[in-house]
Amino acid sequence: xxxxxxxxxxxxxxxxxxxxxxxxxIYPVFKELCVHLSISEIIRLSRTCKALSHLYPTLLxxxxxxxxxxxxxxxxxxxxxxxxxxxxxxxxxxxSFVLQFFERVCWEESDLDIFVEExxxxxxTLVMNILTWDKAYALFPNSTFFTRKGVVLKKxxxxxxxxxxxxxxxxxxxxxxxxxxKRRNTAEIAEIxxxxxxxxxxxxxxxxxxxPPKTPTFVLEHSAFGFERRASPPRECxxxxxxxxxxxxCVLRYQFTRPRHVDSNDAAxxxxxxxxxxxxxxxxxxxxxxxxxRPPSDTLMRQERADLGRFREELFDNDIPRLSCHDDQxxxxxxxxxxxxxxxxxxxxxxxxxxxxxEVLGIE
Length: 364
Hints:
Number of strands: 11
Number of helices: 13
Mean pLDDT: 79
Structural class: alpha+beta
C-alpha cells in the first residue's frame, strides 16, 4: 500500500547523511585525506554525490595543494622573481616539472626546463603541459591523468624509447596515434586546440606583485594550433606535427596563431570570418589616417589582403601613426564560435567510462 496519501500526520523522513561525509567537514581530516588522493580520484569522488561536488574548487582555494612558488623552491631561491622574468620574456616552464605540479608529486631526479619565446617541438602529449607566470595549463588532462597515456607524435627512436621507458616507471604509457581512443579521451586530439580551451585543465596563480607581462595572457589562450599527419613508409605508424601559423593584422598589436590547414567547414568559416572582420576594422582605421598616409583608395574599396599586408609592413617599419588595435575582440569571437559548435560547454576531465560530454565535470 502506498503511503503517499496516508493521513497519519507523521513527518516525512529527512535524508540521512552517510557518516563518512562528516569527515570532510573536519578540516585536519579533510586535508589529510585529500593529500593522498590523485586528481583523477578527486574528480571521481566529486562525482559520487552532490555533497562532494565542491571538492575540487575547495582544494583549489587552498594554496598548499597546487603551489607553484613552493615547488620552484627546489630549483631557485626567489620563485616570484623567476615568475617575474617569465612574464617579461614571454617564457614558460614545461617538461616533467609540470607533470609533477599537476600530480602533486616529486621525482628527485627531475630538472627544470625553461623556454623563452619559442619552445622545443613536442614529441608526445605527455610534455604538452606548461606553467606561465600566472597559470598552469594541461592540454591533455583526460588522457594524461585519467588513463595515464601519452600519444606519440613522431617515429620512435632510441631517445623516444628511453623517454617511454622512464615514464613507464612513473606509471605512464606512450601509445601511437592509431591506437589512441578519442571517445574515451574526450577528443583531445582535435582539429583545433588552444591553451585554455574547453579541453584544457588550467589553474590560476596568485600574481600579486608580479608582472605586468610582455604579452597578455589572453593572447596565449587564443593562439590555436593543429595536428598535421606526416607521410610514413608502409607498415609504419603515422607521425604527426603540431603546426601553428602566424595570424596577424594591421589592427592587432600582438601576434596570434592558427592551424595552417583546417578541414572542418565550421573552422574554415570561423577563420575566414575573423579575417574578414579584421580586414573591415583595418579599412575603418586606415580611413581615419591623414590622406597622405593612406594607401590608394581602390585598395580600401577592394580590401585586398596582400595590399593590406604590405601596408602593415610599412606601418610597423616607419613612423606612420599606429592604428587603433582590436586584440580584445579575439576572445569574444572565439567564445561566440565555440558556443555554437560546442553547445554542451566546457569539458576538461572525465573518468574514462563517461558516456556523454554533458556528464563531464569541468575544471577551471
